[in-house]
Amino acid sequence: MDGDGPFLWLSESAPPSGFRRIPPGGMCLSAFLLLRRGRSILLGKYADDPAWGRLAGLDPERWRAHGAGWTIPARQLKYGEDPRDAARRIGEDILGVRGIAYSEPRAEVDL
Questions:
Q1: Whole domain around residue 35: which residue ranges?
Q2: What is the pLDDT of residue 105?
Q3: pLDDT score of 1
Q4: Measured between alpha carbons, how far is 36 from 30 in angstroms, rounded to an integer?
């Protein structure tokens, strides 16, 4: 059906494969940065720091629920934010790494 995705265009003038309005169940968009070195991928754990809300959009309840496990570096996208900018913010602001060679983003949908 036109206007039901999978591409994120929250606009009445969206192309046929874009969303014209937010789906009834809501929508949460995250950017994940997969850093590879050879066959290894960087994983980490959340620090016990209130800055996570500002850096990654992670509220205290979510941090308590997921803070003990391993995670891929990520953050919530801001309204209108380009995923490439989000990836750079993850690399530079959250991880503190400069000079990363970024690839083009890849979109995935999980329901």
A1: 30-94
A2: 85
A3: 40
A4: 19
CA gap 68, 48 in Å, rounded: 11
Q: Work out how many domains the chain is built from and give that number.
A: 1
Environment class of 18 (CB within 10 Å of its CB; exposed 0-12, middle 13-18, buried 19+): middle
How far apart are the C-alpha atoms of 57 and 18, rounded to whole Å? Answer: 25
Task: Tell me how crowded residue 32 is: count the other CB atoms within 10 A of its CB.
Answer: 16
For the stretch 26-65, pLDDT in tens is 777 788 999 988 999 999 887 777 777 677 667 777 777 8
Residue 46, amino acid: Y
Residue 104 lies in a domain: no
Cα distance between residue 53 and residue 80, in whole Å = 19
Structure tokens at 8: 């994120």
pTM for the structure as a whole: 0.65
Which amino acid is located at 33 in the chain? Answer: L
